[in-house]
Design goal:
Helices cover 40% and strands 15% of the residues. The chain is α/β, with parallel strands linked by helices.
Length: 214
């Protein structure tokens, strides 16, 4: 009740806008959050595939992720999580049941320090809340690798993240929904999944909010 009243007052004082295109929104979508009708129809939603991601990393989706990741638009995590949760319920319901915890691919400590937050951690917390699952750290970066965007090819990406992570203790048979903001070649996710398997984790499902079109 109080939360709904607060949101109503905020919507009056600050006209809500679509997190993707910036257009004004008359009514916030109760299922998807701050997204306009045009973006619901026209954004580059991904078809079902072996890579679980609701969007292609293109156009307004790419710009929204960049603003969220580099320009402090942390409030976007609310809408991102709503869209992502609905996508997972429709395409991979197993990952949304209470046996799973939500975790994330941790950002470099240097980058998260200067940015002020770890965007993947923020997404994981919002998604876990939306799915009514626990959010728990299962990976730690043991070295600060260079941004994957600096790699010239897939081989360099694999080398860049090799041995960059270590698993937390006590993961025996833990079912994990591991998330990240963008999936490119799979080098980072493959490295992380391999480490979690070595740590005797249970079923591991990886999902990204967006993925590069191959």
């Amino acid at each position: 009740m109080v939360k709904n009243l607060k949101n109503f007052i905020l919507d009056i004082l600050y006209k809500p806008v679509c997190v993707f295109c910036g257009a004004g929104i008359a009514v916030v979508n109760p299922e998807l959050g701050y997204i306009c009708d045009d973006c619901v129809r026209n954004l580059p939603f991904c078809p079902e595939s072996e890579i679980l991601a609701p969007f292609f990393y293109l156009g307004d989706v790419r710009q929204a992720v960049i603003r969220f990741k580099f320009r402090g638009k942390t409030g976007y995590s609310f809408t991102f999580a709503k869209i992502w949760a609905r996508y997972l319920r429709e395409t991979c319901s197993a990952a949304t049941n209470g046996d799973f915890i939500v975790s994330w691919v941790p950002c470099s400590t240097v980058r998260s320090f200067f940015r002020g937050y770890d965007q993947a951690h923020m997404m994981a917390k919002a998604l876990a809340k939306e799915l009514k699952l626990k959010c728990k750290r299962v990976l730690v970066r043991k070295r600060n690798s260079k941004p994957q965007t600096t790699a010239n090819n897939a081989q360099e990406r694999v080398k860049n993240v090799k041995d960059a992570f270590v698993a937390k203790k006590n993961l025996d048979k833990t079912a994990i929904l591991l998330i990240d903001d963008v999936f490119t070649t799979g080098a980072t996710s493959s490295e992380c999944i391999g480490i979690l398997r070595e740590a005797k984790a249970g079923r591991i499902i990886f999902s990204a909010f967006s993925r590069k079109r191959s």
